[in-house]
Amino acid sequence: MNLDVNQARLNAELDKLASFSEAPAPAVTRILYTEQDLAARAYFKDLCLEAGLELRVDALGNTYARWQGSEPNLAAVATGSHIDAIPYAGMYDGTVGVLGGLEAIRALQKSGFTPKRSLELILFTAEEPTRFGVGCLGSRVMSGVLGTQGLESLKDNEGKTPNEARQAAGFQGQLSDVRLPEGFYHAFVELHIEQMPQLEQKGIPIGVVTAIAAPATLHIRLEGAGGHAGAVLMPDRKDALICGAEIAQTIETIALSTGSIDSVATVGIFDIHPRAVNSIPSKVFMTVDVRDTDLARRDGMVEAIKDAVRSISGGRKLKAVIETLNADPPASCAREITEATELAAREYGLRTLPMVSRAYHDALFMARLCPTGMIFIPCKDGVSHRPDEYSKPEDIERGVKVLASVLARLSMS
Ligand code: HGY
Ligand code: MN
Ligand code: MN
Fold it and tell me: What is the pLDDT of residues 80-111, one digit of tens each?
């Protein structure tokens, strides 16, 4: 297909979107339902209306922009990603799939292509776990992985549930309507930066994702005795920080000793209380993000971590509470989509590399609803979740072209 992707316009839109941030440029912080998030969503909706797409917003804020096909009763083909950004992140994670998806649709419109199956661009709510501790809230509820009951069990730092937060942000409607029925979509394809250095190092422009790794999240709360830093003798202490530090060190050892490079575990949050120079830490709150491409290995790490928490805290006579927020299976990408991506790349003379996504994405849950795939493009040094995250305009353009071609092919199937 001879497609004219407007690289300059897309780049300007990515820059504009990045300006909706709670952190100074080049960092981007855009937390779920904040003023900046809502402004960014409004900007996205305006762009979709300008492109003549039909908009729908559900009770959680998942935003659907549809290009009606010639046979609107057939299940649509969907694409999309997220625009929320963790604290001090970059401007390409997620947004390339949202604005790149829009540009793919505009390029198809401009080429005179008429879709048989409608094409639907989705802005997923809360792909990042920042506010409620669990990622992909929107696609979890869409796919039925998380029900309204489960949503109620999640709380943000102010004790608000997602239901309270979404209503305060102005999203109305029934949460039960967010769930999409089986067969609602014919297929889903997500364009995303690789967030690893393989494509760039190999000089290959297109990654064809074959599987998405299995993520799990634990919250660990430790309670010791605290006390006066000068008066409590070392043998009498129940120091929550030292206990947490030993647990964190053990978590690293557990991930390093599975025998696979695909095993990763991260303590991303480590809060201590009362944080005073001359006071022994009495409490610790820590999060653990555990992932592997192999489910059994991931579950093995989770169990080993829980055992370590119990034995280390027991040995130090501290109280430990472990909460599992999520423990999701990996997802395999659908053959018809990986093959369509290979074909599309070949059409443009682009080399491809099959790969596993170690980051999770909304595609992990869309795979429960319909045949799903992902297209990766290179990002500089593989850096992501950092202000220096960068993807070259020409790499983004190549990704958009391949995405557009895949969407067109799936829409005519
Ligand atoms: O954490 C992840 O894999 C994604 O960036 N939310
Ligand atoms: Mn991310
Ligand atoms: Mn992402």
Answer: 999 999 999 999 999 999 999 999 999 999 99
Question: Taking the model in full, what pTM does it have?
Answer: 0.94
In the chain, how many H helices and how many E strands? 12, 15
CB 76, CB 120: distance < 8 Å: yes
Domain annotation for the chain: domains and CATH numbers: 7-213+330-411 (3.40.630.10), 214-327 (3.30.70.360)
β 63-67/119-124 pair status: antiparallel
Query: CA 298, 218, 253 angle in degrees (round to 5)?
Result: 55
Atom of ligand 1 nearest to the CA of 358: 3
Distance 382 CA to ligand 2 centre (A): 13
Mean pLDDT lowest for which of 48-52, 149-153, 346-350, 356-360? 149-153
Q: Which atom of ligand 1 is nearest to the CA of 127?
A: 6
Task: Give 93's contacts (C-beta < 8 A, 6+ positions apart).
Answer: 85, 192, 193, 195, 384, 385, 389
Distance CA 197, CA 382 (A): 4
* pLDDT tens column, 116-134: 999 999 999 999 999 999 9
- Give residue 1's pLDDT: 83
Strands 372-377, 185-193: pairing is parallel
Indicate the top mutation candidate among 96, 196, 356, 360 to test ligand 1's pocket, ranked by most ligand atoms within 8 A of CB: 360
